[in-house]
């Protein structure tokens, strides 16, 4: 029996059928090439934000970008996005609130629900991080040929559906 694992998910038996056949057609060389390319992309994004040093750990940056992308969300939604437990996410939010990056506010439609909202500092930092990463990615893409850029763009557009 084979298993597939998604981010923050437990191993699941691989589905049979057309998708299973496609997976068998993927060679180790293809996986290695994708992994190598992914490493280049990740390293470029990490280097792009080295300017903030260790003052904001990478898990806080991930949470910051998740919250910024959503506008506001509750603790359980953040925990799912991070692939972490609610208690670990709550402690992370405590540290981020102490650093002035986020606040906890009552949800507009519910007096009982608390939502996580970035402060102005948090929004500025999220914008800076995205700007730095986009600049690094722009540099990488500019170094590629047009065909390679188009193929990469096509492939990356398919990833969200494949990760479902």
In words, what does this structure look like?
By secondary structure, the chain is mainly alpha-helical. The chain has a domain of 83 residues: Arc Repressor Mutant, subunit A. The protein is built from seven helices and four strands, in the order ββαααααββαα. Strands 1-2 form a two-stranded antiparallel sheet. A hairpin with a 7-residue loop joins strand 1 and strand 2. Helix 2 crosses helix 6, helix 3 packs across helix 6 and helix 4 crosses helix 5.
Distance between the termini: 21 Å
Computed over alpha carbons, the radius of gyration is 19 Å
Strand/helix succession: EEHHHHHEEHH
- Would you identify the CATH architecture of the domain at 56-138? Orthogonal Bundle
Q: What's the helix and strand layout?
A:
Layout: E1 3-4, E2 12-13, H1 18-24, H2 28-48, H3 58-70, H4 75-82, H5 86-98, E3 102-106, E4 114-118, H6 120-142, H7 146-162
Antiparallel strand pairs: 1-2, 3-4
Helix pairs in contact: 2-6, 3-6, 4-5
How would you describe this structure in keywords?
disordered N terminus; two-stranded antiparallel ribbon; mainly alpha; 164 residues; 7 helices; globular; Arc Repressor Mutant, subunit A
């Amino acid at each position: 029996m084979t298993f597939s694992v998604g981010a923050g998910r437990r191993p699941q038996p691989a589905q049979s059928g057309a998708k299973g056949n496609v997976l068998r057609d993927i060679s180790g060389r293809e996986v290695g090439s994708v992994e190598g390319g992914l490493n280049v992309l990740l390293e470029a994004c990490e280097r792009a934000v080295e300017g903030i040093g260790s003052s904001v750990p990478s898990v806080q940056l991930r949470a910051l970008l998740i919250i910024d992308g959503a506008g506001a969300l509750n603790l359980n939604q953040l925990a799912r996005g991070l692939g972490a437990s609610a208690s670990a996410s709550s402690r992370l939010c405590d540290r981020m609130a102490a650093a002035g990056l986020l606040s906890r506010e009552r949800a507009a439609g519910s007096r009982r629900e608390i939502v996580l909202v970035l402060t102005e500092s948090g929004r500025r930092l999220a914008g800076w991080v995205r700007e730095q990463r986009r600049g690094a990615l722009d540099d990488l893409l500019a170094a590629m040929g047009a065909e390679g850029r188009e193929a990469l763009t096509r492939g990356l557009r398919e990833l969200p559906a494949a990760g479902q």
